[in-house]
Structures
1.
Amino acid sequence: MKKALVVLVLLMMMSTLVFAAGSKETAAEPAASKKIVIWTNLTADAQAKVLRKQFTEVAAEMGVEVEMVTISFNDMYTKLATAVESGNVPDIMHTNFAGTAYLYSQDIILNMDDVIDKIGKDDFISSYLHVLNAEGKTWGIPDWALHTSVWYRKDLFQEKGIKIPTDWAEFKAAAQKLNIDEDGDGKIDVYGFPVPLNAVQVAPQTYYEFLYSAGVTTFDPKTGKYTFGSQKKKAVEVTDYLIDLYKTVSPPSSIEWSWNEYRNALVEGTVAMTLDMGAVIGLAQNNNPEMVEKLGCFDLPGQFGNKPASFGSGYAFVVSNSGSATEIETKKEFIHRLYTSERAAERALSRPMFAFPSLYSALEIYKQSPSVALFQDQIATISDAFENSNWYWYGMEHGLSQMSSQIEATTFFGEALQSVALGMQTSVKAVDFIDQQLQEQISIIE
Amino acid sequence: MGNLRLIRQDRRFRPQQQTLGIIFIIPMVAFLLVFVVYPVLYNIFLSFTNARLIKKDYSFINFDNYKKIFTDLRFLTYVKNTVVWTVASVIGQLSLGLMIALMINRKSSGTGLRSFLLIPYVVPAVAIALVTKWVMNGDYGIISYWFQTLGLIEHRQSPLAIPGSAMAVLVIVNVWRSYPFPMLIYWATLKGIDKELYEAASVDGAGTIQSFLHITLPHLRDTTIVLVVLRIVWTATYFDLPWLITGGGPAGSTTHLPIMIYQASFGTFQTGYASSLSVILGLSLFLCVVFYVRKTISNDSGR
C-alpha cells in the first residue's frame, strides 16, 4: 500500500513536470491568432515610442492585439538563437539587416515580395531592397537605412583652412592639422579623428568602412565567392593605415571606445571628426545644441580617391513563417499598414540623420521636417550614396548572408586590431588571423 | 552511526519514516535530475559532437573539439587570464572580508554600519559595470583624470584601454563587489569564538597580534577552507562583470574561459565546441577543489 502511494506520488509529480513543459505549445496556439508579438532591437526611447504608437494604431485599425518586446542590440543574437532553438520566434521582427540574414538562414521567415508589390515596389529605394535579396526573393521589408560618413566640425575646417579630403593621404593630413592643443600645455585637447576599436561590434564597423574604401570585401559582390583571403596584402595596408591614424590622431583610450564614447567626443568638442551613421546629430540636439550647426558630413574618400564602396546597413520588418494561412495574412496586412509614407517617415525621423526612410515618398516628407532642416546638404550627400554608390554591411556584399551576423556576434576583429594597436602583433599576423577566423565562420555556416 | 542504530532499533516507525522521507526528497531529486544531472550529462555528450546552435543536425567527432582547444594558442592566454582573475579576486575578497569582519566584530559597530557594508553585494552587476566604465573613461572619468594628473597614465588614456591595468580594474571591482559574503561568514565565525580564550591570552601577556595569530586565525581555518572553495568556483565561472566592463578586451587581455565559452556558444554558435570548453572548465575546477581540500586536510592531520 505504502509502495503504491509512493509510486503514485512519483507519477503525479513526473506527469506534472511533463505536462507543464508540454502545455506551453498548446497554450500558445490559440493565443497566436489573437495577439501579434513583435520584437524590436530599437531600445532608444524616441524610436521605441514611435514604434509602440504605430503598432497600437495599426492594431486598433485591424482589431487585433499586439505586444511589442524590445531587445537590446547586444542581446539580439543570444535571444534570437534561443528563440529559434525553442521554436518561440516572434510573429514579426523589426531587426537590422544582419539579423534578417540570420533569420533567413534559419528558414523561419517569409519572402515579402507580395507585400512590397502591394505597397508599391517603385516607391522603394532599390538598393535597400537589393540588400535583403537572396535566391531572387526579398526576405524583409526595408524600413530605413543608415550610412557611415565622416562627421566633422565645419568651423574647425574653416579655421584651419582645410578642404574636404579626396584620398587617404589628404585625410590623414587633415586629421593631423586638427590635433589641437587649445591651452598650450603641450597636450592635445582636440584630436583629429578617433579610431574606436571596442571589440563588440564597433571595431569591425570602423575597419570595414576603410576596407570597402580600399576595395577589400569579404565576398565578391557579383559572384559571392570568398575574396578576403586573396586580398590580404591590401587588407594589411588598410590595417597599417588605420593603426597609424590611431597612433597619430586618435585619443589613446579610443582603443576601447564604443558608439557612445566617440559620438560624445564629437558632440562635446574633444575630437574634430568621426566616422558615424549620423547619430551625432540627435545627440547634439539633446546634449549640446550649440554644436548642431557646426557639424557637417562627407563620404570617407577612397584610398587613392576612387571609392569602390562604403559601409551601411538598416532595419527591416520580417515575418515568421509559422501559423495558419489566416494568421500569416494578418501579419502581412499589419506590415502593409505600417508602410504609409507618413508612418515610414515618422519612424525614420525618430532618429534624425541616423535613419533614412526606404520609400521615396517618405524621404520627401523626411526632408521637410524641422529636425533635419539644417542638414539638406548632408541629406543630399547621404541619399546620393544610397542611390548611386555601392554600400554593404560586413559580409553582405553579395546580398543576405549569415556571415554578417557571425561577424557581428564575435569579437575577433576587435581582438586582432587592438593587438596591432598595442604592438602585441604585426598587421600581417592580424590579417592572417582574421582570414583564418572568417574561413572558419564560413565552414560553420556551410 | 549512533543515529542509524537508533532507527534500526525503532522498527515500529521505519516504514512510515521511509515513505515520508522519500516523499520529502522527491522534489529535490527531481530538481537535481532535471536542472543539474541532465544538463551536465547532455553537455558532456555535446562536447563530443559538432553541434551548432544554428543547425539541427550534428554528428560525433570524437575528441576533435578537445584537440582544437589544446592547439589554439589563445586558449593558454585565456587560461592564464582565468587563473589571474580567480586567484587575485579570491585573495582580495577573503582578505578584505576578514579585515572588515574584524572591524564590525567590535562592540562599537552598529547595525547601520553592517547593513551599509552589505550594499556592494546587492548592487546589480550592470549598474556596477556602467559606473566603472564612467569613472574610468579617458575623457571625463574621475579616476582616469586622477591617474592622468599623477602621470600614471597618458593624457586622455583610460586604465581600461591598457591590458595589465584593465585586468587590475576588473579584479578590484570584483573584490569590492564580492567581499560582503566572506565578511558575513567570517563575522559569524568570529562571534562563535569563546571570549574567555582572549581573556586568558591577555592574562598571559599576549598582545592583539599574538591573539589574532594564535586564537583568531586557527578558529577561522575551517571557514576559510569552505570560503576558498566556494569563491574559487563562483569567481572562475563569473561572467557578468568582465563581459560588461571590458568585453574581454583590450586585445583579449581580460578574456577568461567563461567569455570564451560565451563567444563560442553565442558568437560563433559552436555549441559542441563551447560544451567541451565547459567540460574543461568544470573538470579543472573540480580537480582544483579536490586538490586544495585534500592538501588542507593532509596538512591538518600532519600536525
Note: Chain B has two domains: 1-40, 47-121+166-301.
2.
Amino acid sequence: MKRLIIYVVLVLLATQSLAALGQTETQRDAVTTITWWHSNSGLAGKAAETLVDDFNNTVGKEKNIQVQAVYQGKANDVLTKAKAIWQSSDTSDLPDLVQLDGSAVLDIRDNPNLIAMEDLAKADGYDLSQIMEAARLSITYKQKMIAMPFNSSTILLYYNKTAFDELGITAPPRTLDDLAEVATKLKKTDDKGKVIRYGFANVPTTYELMVWLGQQNGLSYITDFENGHTGNPTKVLFHENGTMVNFLTKWKALYATGSLENLTSDLNGAFASGRVVMIVASTSNLTTIHSMVGDRFEVGVAPFPMVDEKATGGVNVGGGAIYALNNGSHNESAAWEFVKFATSAKQQYAWHIATGYFPVHRDTYTMPEFQAHLEANPHYGVAIKQLLDSNPKLQGLWVPSAYQIYYAFQSGILKMLTENKSPEQTSKELETEINSYFAEFQRMQQE
Amino acid sequence: MKKVTAFVATVFSLIVVFPIFYSISASFFTYTDFTSIPARLLPSRPTLENYYRAFKESNLEQFLANSLVTASLGTALRMVISILAAYTFSFFTFKGRDVLFVLIVATMLLPSDALLLANYSTIRSLRLTDTYVGIISTTLLAPTHIFMLRQYFKTVSSEYREAALIEGCSDVRFLTTLLIPISKAVVITLAIHSFSTIFNDYLWPLLVTNKESMRTVQVGLTMLGFSENLDYGPQFAAITLLITPILIAFIAMHKPIQTSVSTRFAGR
C-alpha cells in the first residue's frame, strides 16, 4: 500500500514536470508568441480577453503573431512577480509585455530590461501624436515615453443632484470658495445640532493634491525635476511657491463652515447613502457609484473644483500602462504590433465601453459611435471634456517613499484642522517631513 | 466567573463566525443586494446565479482541483517528513542532533517573504515552474510541525520503544501502530492546519505558475472581481466553496483538535 502511494506520487510529479518541458518546446514554431502579463480581472478581464482574441484572429493571424494574455494577480502582484525575475540573473522568463500601475514606475523606469515604448514606435514609423498628449506625458520619463498608457482615468466631482435641486442650487461649484458656500447650504443638522448631512467629505492625499497643487497658476510643480518626471526629486516646491499655503487656506475656510467631513475611507458609501452630498473620485468609479446609488437620487458629475480662479491647470491622467521588456527573444517588434492594436482608435473605444477607462487614442473621440455614446452617457462627456481642457503638462507625482508621503499629507492636513494650526506652519512642516524622505532616499542611492 | 467566560467565549466566537456567515449569505445575494443601504445581512431573494457564474466565468473547477491536489499532496508529504524528523529527534541519539534540531527550529524565525525571491530563483533553475512540485516544494519542510511533534513524542517514554524493539518490533511498526495512534490528536490537528495553509496560499502559487491550467483557486478567486465594480457575487460564491471543505474538516475533527490544543506540548 505504502509503495503504491509512493509510485502514484512519483508518477504525478513526473507527468507534471514533463508537461512543463513540452510546453516550452511547442513554442518554437514559425508563429511568434507574445506574452502579456496583466491584472485585469472581472469585467476588465473579459475585455482584455476579447481584445487579445480580436488581435489573434486579425492582425496576429496575418503577421504570424499570437498573443498570450496571462493574468498575474492584482496590479501589485504583477510587479512582485516581474521583480522576482529581473532580480534573478536569468531574465528569459520575463514577459514581452507587462501592464503595470502608476505606482510601479519607480521600480521599472531605470530597469535595463525595459525597452522604451517610444523607441518601438519610432522603429515602426508610428506617429505618437495620435496618442493623447496628457496620457503620453503621464508615462514620460526624462523626455521619453517609456510605456504605452492603457487604462487611464482622471478625477471628478460627484454630487447629489437631487439635494442640489431641493435647495435650488443650479450649478455645481467651480472653485473651492464656491464649494464652501454650496456645502454650507447643503449641510443638515438635527435638533441637537449634530450634523446628519455633510456638504463635502475628503482628507486630501497625494491623489487629490497632485491636482489641487498642480493646477495652480496654470501649472505648478509639487517637487523639483517636474514632479519626478525628469529625475529623482530632491526637494518639494509647494512651500516656496506658495501653492500649499494657498490651498490650505481655502481648505481651512471650508472646514470652518462645519460642512466638511474628514472622511478617509468608504467615501463612495457615504455619498451613496446620502450622508455626504459631494465627493471627488476617479472617473473609473463612475459605474460603481451609479450602481451603488441606484435610484435613491440623481447623480451629477462636474469638473474637479479649482483651488481659485487662477488655478486653470485642470487635472492629470492617472492609471496604468503597458511596458515592453527584453527577455532575450527579440520579439519586440511583434510585441509592438499588439500594443499598436490595443491602443488603436477602434480598440480603445471597445475598451472604454467595457471598462470606463478613457480612450488614449485621439481618433476615438471623433468616431461617430463614440459621439453617440457620449450623448447617451453625458457623465463620460464631462470627464473627457475636463481632460481635454487640462494642461497636458500637469502630471502625477513620481516620488520615492510614496506611501509615507501619502500619509504625511493626510495626517498633516488633519492636524491643521483639528489642532487649529496655521496653513503656513502646516505647509512648512510638510516640506520638512517630505524633504527628509527625499534626503534619505538620496543617501540610500549613494551607498 | 463561569458567566464571564461564557460571555467572552460567545463574543469571540461571534467575531470568528461572522465573516464566514456573511460570505455564505452574500454568495446568495443579487447584484442590488450588495449596494443596498443600509447594508443587508441576508439576501432579498436567494439566488444560485453567483455559483453558476463563478464556474462559467472562470475555470473554477480546474483551479479547485489544482488546489486540492497541491494541498493534499503537500500535506501528506509534509506530515511524513515531519513525523519522521520528529521521531528521529525524540528517540534517537546521535552526534549533532541538538544542533541540527536548533537549526531547523531557527528557520521559524525567517519570514517567508524574505525567502520568496530566492526560492523562486531555485524553483525556476530546477525548471519546476508550472508544476505541482514547484508549488508544494517550499512548504514541505515545516519546522513548527517538527517542533510540535517532537515535543509530543517526548512525552512518550522511550522505554516503550525499547520494549517494542526487544520484542522484535521494527521502528516503522512502532511508529505506525503505536506512536501515531497515540499522537492522533496532534497529527490530525497539524494535518488540517497544513492543508488549510497550503490551500489558502496565494502569492507563492501565483509566482511559480504562468499557465492558467496550473493556477490554484486563491489566484483564480481574484480573477472573478474587478476592483472598480461592485459585482462581488461570484467571488463570494467561490469563497463559500473554498471554505466549505475546510470547515467540514474542522467540524468533523473538532474533538482531536480540542484535545491537542488543551494538551500541553511542554514535554517532560
Note: Chain A has a mean pLDDT of 89.
